[in-house]
Amino acid sequence: MRHTRRLRWAAIPIAAAVTFVLAGCSDAQLHGFLPGFKSGEKPVTTKTEMVSGLWVTSWIVLLVVGIIVWALVIWAVVVYRRRKGQTGLPVQLRYNMPIEVFYTIVPFILIIGFFAFTARDQDAIEKPYANPDLHVTVYAKQWAWDWDYTDDDAYDPGIQAQAVADTGDSSTQGDVVESELPTLYLPVDKKIDITLKSRDVIHSFWVPAFLYKKDVIPGHTNHMYVTPTRIGTYKGDCAELCGEYHSAMLFQVKVVSEADYEAHIAELKAKGYTGSLGDDYNRNNNLPGTGAPTSGGND
């Protein structure tokens, strides 16, 4: 009885401390320090909460498992240590069926749980929109990006990141001219189907704040399905090593109002960027076909 009371009195300050710590956490901490979360503001997309929820929950489960494992290890070390005056090996425990069943079944349940929740969320994230509001085609190339605003008959060619001119200031070394980065404009609160194509080698389209990344593979078309919900400018880059200037393959995504999006499209058309900058500009023309091989001979 006395032991139970002690446990209750010990649990009270522990619970209070945990509550205090969680209450003082920022949005970034509550979302596992993932990018794209700001206090009092919407998530960047409709799917970032889902991704962060899976991430944080997984870490909590793993932390609990880790605490239990370490507690059992320490308990075994203390309880079964060699006592003063003892010689030889401590008493050995073998073939304990309950313990063996426990450490076989519990990890299996954890693996099934992680798989089930990951498959559920991945299915929701990768599910195509039945009626997207906008189609955009992204072309990855060494070492920049081209944007085709498919539904608006406009395009925007991109160049690789340009280094800031050397002024002798060491603090600016390695900086790039952000105004010249390829910038993809997306209207806020619109369902967007992004088609991903490569002009040459394998790349990867990654916007960290979206918590979403997709490989861009030559000869294969991938898709991303995004509904941005917060206006702002978000950094992006290629996340697949693609050659000498891979590190300069940077871009930005600007989520803007519908009016600003239409103004940007009008600006592109005024520059003469009408139509499509499509597959005709691909460098890799040595892709396998789907037709039957033709016979040929040496004359």
The helicity comes to: 25-40%
| CATH fold naming of the largest domain | Immunoglobulin-like
Give me the count of strands.
10
- The name of the CATH architecture of the largest domain is Sandwich
Unreliable segments (pLDDT under 50, ≥5 consecutive)?
Answer: none
Fraction of residues in β-strands: 15-25%
The N- to C-terminal Cα distance equals 100 Å
Tally of structural domains: 2
CATH superfamily of the largest domain: Cupredoxins -  blue copper proteins
How would you explain this protein's 3D organization?
The protein is α+β, with helices and mostly antiparallel strands and 299 residues long. The protein has 2 domains: 2-82 and 93-126, no CATH class; 134-165 and 173-279, Immunoglobulin-like (Sandwich). It is 34% helix and 19% strand. The protein is built from 5 helices and 10 strands. It has helices at residues 2-23, 27-30, 48-79, 97-126, 258-270; strands at residues 134-141, 144-149, 154-156, 183-187, 192-198, 203-207, 212-216, 222-226, 232-238, 250-256. It has a 5-stranded mixed beta sheet. A hairpin with a 4-residue loop joins strand 2 and strand 3. Helix 3 packs antiparallel against helix 4. The longest helix has 32 residues, at 48-79. The protein starts with a helix and ends in a 29-residue tail after the last helix. The model has no long low-confidence stretch (mean pLDDT 84).
